[in-house]
UniProtKB/TrEMBL annotation:
Enzyme Commission code: 3.1.2.14
UniProt-listed GO biological process terms: medium-chain fatty acid biosynthetic process
A GO term for molecular function: fatty acyl-[ACP] hydrolase activity
SUPFAM superfamilies from the UniProt entry: alpha/beta-Hydrolases
Keyword Protease: no
Reactions catalysed: (9Z)-octadecenoyl-[ACP] + H2O = (9Z)-octadecenoate + holo-[ACP] + H(+)
Similarity remark: Belongs to the thioesterase family.
Top-level enzyme category: hydrolase
Domain Thioesterase residues, every copy: 17-244
Any Pfam family hit: Thioesterase
UniProt keywords, alphabetically: Fatty acid biosynthesis, Fatty acid metabolism, Hydrolase, Lipid biosynthesis, Lipid metabolism
InterPro entries cross-referenced by the UniProt entry: AB_hydrolase_fold, TEII, Thioesterase
Protein name in UniProt: S-acyl fatty acid synthase thioesterase, medium chain
């Protein structure tokens, strides 16, 4: 499990686990540290995909199915053991959704809450446009495309860091394009509450469709900042407090 999951602070007595799914090209460093910011009732697991950090020598995932199979196989015991919630940002939102759909369909397991960030709802026109787009082979063209389609962010000046980010983000983008979800009128996959966050200065996401994926409540929060608004200390503090309140009010 240590290969797939970063957990900086184990909390055996926690009432709930928050499983975090990073953005395209991202690792576990930012979200895993949330484990030290939550109180003892919430233990944080951050998913580490192949091709980065301690898994640098592994080939990137070829498709979303391989990621879903790894996450569910490795974490199934923990997911059955106690309640869990998902937090996911950008590309990670689709990874988390794919995992949640598989868990519900195959194991009748469901998060107590889905916390989603900066992503089009999968049943929206915006999502289909992004999914069907062409991924440029040229690095500069790819970065431009990412900024247009995936939101604004600061591109690293260091050439090695920049190159690594491009390679990893391109691989994650290809995985994203293998994610498939079709919403029908009678298909409401979840019953848990859903909260969607986004940055005020980011691109506009087609987000209202998230409400159609659950029988539970759906809430929407705009926070100051760009695509990576969640890295600002004030916003991070808001997210920690809000997620804690939602989980503690879930009646675990």
């Amino acid at each position: 499990m240590e290969k797939l999951v970063a957990c900086v602070q184990k909390k055996p007595g926690a009432l709930c686990r928050l499983i975090c799914f990073p953005w395209a090209g991202g690792g576990t460093s930012q979200l895993a540290r949330w484990g030290k910011l939550f109180n003892d009732s919430i233990e944080v697991f951050c998913i580490r995909l192949p091709g980065r950090e301690s898994r640098l020598e592994e080939p990137f995932a070829n498709d979303m199915t391989s990621i879903v199979n790894e996450v569910t196989t490795v974490l199934l015991k923990e997911l059955k053991e106690k309640p869990f919630a998902f937090f996911a940002h950008s590309f990670g939102t689709y990874t988390s959704l794919a995992v949640a759909l598989h868990l519900k369909e195959k194991y009748r397991l469901e998060p107590v809450h889905l916390f989603l960030s900066s992503a089009h709802a999968p049943n929206s026109a915006g999502h289909l446009t992004l999914k069907n787009g062409t991924i440029p082979d040229d690095d500069d063209d790819f970065l431009t495309c990412m900024e247009i389609l995936g939101g604004s962010y600061e591109i690293p000046q260091d050439e090695d860091i920049r190159k690594n980010m491009v390679v990893t983000s391109r691989a994650d983008s290809r995985v994203f394009q293998t994610f498939s979800f079709e919403k029908t009128e009678k298909n409401i996959p979840f019953s848990c509450d859903v909260t969607y966050f986004y940055g005020s200065d980011d691109k506009i996401y087609d987000a209202q469709g998230w409400q159609e994926l659950t029988c539970g409540d759906a809430s929407f929060y705009q926070l100051p900042g760009d695509h990576f608004y969640l890295l600002k200390p004030s916003n991070e503090s808001f997210l920690i407090k809000h997620i804690t309140r939602c989980i503690e009010n879930a009646g675990l």
